[in-house]
Fold each of these.
Amino acid sequence: MNWISNYVRPKINSLFSRREVPENLWTKCPECGTMLFHRELAANLNVCTSCDHHMAISPRDRFIGLFDVGVFVEVKVPEPVVDPLHFRDQKKYPDRLKAAQKVTGEREAMLVAEGEVGRTPIIAVAQDFSFMAGSMGMYVGNAIIAAAQRAVATKRPLVMFSAAGGARMQEGILSLMQMPRTTVAVQMLKEAGLPYVVVLTHPTTGGVTASYAMLGDVQIAEPNALICFAGPRVIEQTIREKLPEGFQRAEYLLDHGMLDRVTHRKALREELVTILRMLMNQSPAVKGDLPPPGDILESAEVKA
Ligand SMILES: [Zn+2]
């Protein structure tokens, strides 16, 4: 060791790392390439302010923007057995889980919450695509069942925000079993006469589309979301034909009768309140007595 490695190198490193900080304040829109200031983007619910492209939003941020004054209580989800198949590809399954937990700061790919939206009591579930592509494993199944049971116990409607690459292959057949399990959970709501509203976000694919994500009483999607069982690339390779423009995107599916609504993320909250209150036989919501979600998200971030 000499003074160069002890003194000069750390100084140079600190100069460079200091330069990296401002870069993290900006996010590049993948659609139009505009650089967006992170606080402005968060206040706009992760929708590009220049081209209206809907970027991914974490379940926690979505709930802060959705629930009245950003307040909600998490519903506890029973823990499944971790890695029953001792699955290993390039990495061990528990190592993949740990890495995803570190990146997202969440326990698993689904968050369950209860609270009020426009003074309407609801239970909400949101899937996290950044957690192992939002894949549906036993935990996700448990989360949906916990949400449905809580909704029935408290006589509240259930709102589902789906985003998934499909079933979690590391759990093999146990992940596929979540399709009938969650279907039964949705049936529980219907038997109790409670509404189940699905908001499909980009992308919702595979076994998730083949089960709980398509069973809503009202099917809403965010603009330009990819919603499919098999993806367009797989279909193109199989049938060896060019697919039509916008195939399997929200607007295309709306035109072809697969969806009820395509709604901008900023209009979603109000629309959900209207639909849920109507289905729950409640009087129309009083407008204008609560701050808009964007302001809350911004102030929550300032506090953090
Ligand atoms: Zn953009």
Note: The chain has a mean pLDDT of 91.
Amino acid sequence: MKVMILGATGLLGKALMREGSGDEVTGLSSRDVDIRNAQQVREVLEKARPEWIVLAAAYTDVDGCESHQDLAFAVNRDGPLNVAKAAKQIGAKLIFLSSDYVFDGKNTVPYEIDDTRNPQSIYGRSKAEAELGLLEVLPECCIARTSWLFGRGGKCFPETILKLAATRPTLDVVNDQRGCPTYTVDLARAIAELCRRGASGIVHVTNAGDCTWFDFAREIVKSAGLATDVLPVSSQQMARPAPRPAYSVLSPASLQRYEIVMPAWRDALQRYLGS
Ligand SMILES: NC(=O)c1ccc[n+]([C@@H]2O[C@H](COP(=O)([O-])OP(=O)(O)OC[C@H]3O[C@@H](n4cnc5c(N)ncnc54)[C@H](OP(=O)(O)O)[C@@H]3O)[C@@H](O)[C@H]2O)c1
């Protein structure tokens, strides 16, 4: 497959670049192409003519999106539409990375792909609007929603917890947000498989199982053999600019249709810590 990765310098992008052996993979950063610039996007894609475009480029600072709304919508909604239009012109297939934050978190059972979007944050809104726009411009595209990414090559939750735990006797971590931690290595592998299988429509792709951030932090500290006490606190006690869904577990049913089975997040965490 001839694959182009947009957002190749990001957490997921780096894993995608490592995954693509056997394929002809090109990866671009925002320096190579700014997805907000429709003409630049068109020129780059017309020149490269990939069969598949994996769109992992985004403005992912969820709190930053609240204070930089124009930037959030320009990169996360308008950018993907520029890419979709260019993809359509050259006949390329597109897989777009979206987020669990398109949901409001009021569910008590895992979200299915056709559950109603009701984002609570600007980041979530920008992703939800991108999804709707993409389905109009390129109805056959694939939208891969994922959540709680961790991996090598960028800032992520386990890395932050390990740094803090190394210097503090206790750590406060929120215990009222539940989701699915997802290892970039496993996600990259699943994305490559989705491309091979010609995936289309919305798919939920996360590691198996779910937990709260508190559970996740406790597992990280325990696995690293650290003595730090992890203490459960509420989101209210740790107020942040962007509201987060209380429950954003994504159902794996859509992925199972492609016969792709994701490893459990605890197993993924052990592999990450050992890497
Ligand atoms: N991280 C998570 O927990 C999470 C959860 C759910 C969904 N997702 C989605 O998964 C995807 C990958 O996330 P990530 O955590 O790997 O992101 P990331 O580490 O923040 O990387 C973002 C990437 O996007 C590129 N980029 C930013 N603005 C751009 C622009 N205007 N034009 C072109 N490229 C631009 C960056 O390039 P530079 O290096 O040049 O800046 C970088 O390669 C995103 O779509 C994100 O929304 C992430």
Note: The chain has ten helices and twelve strands.
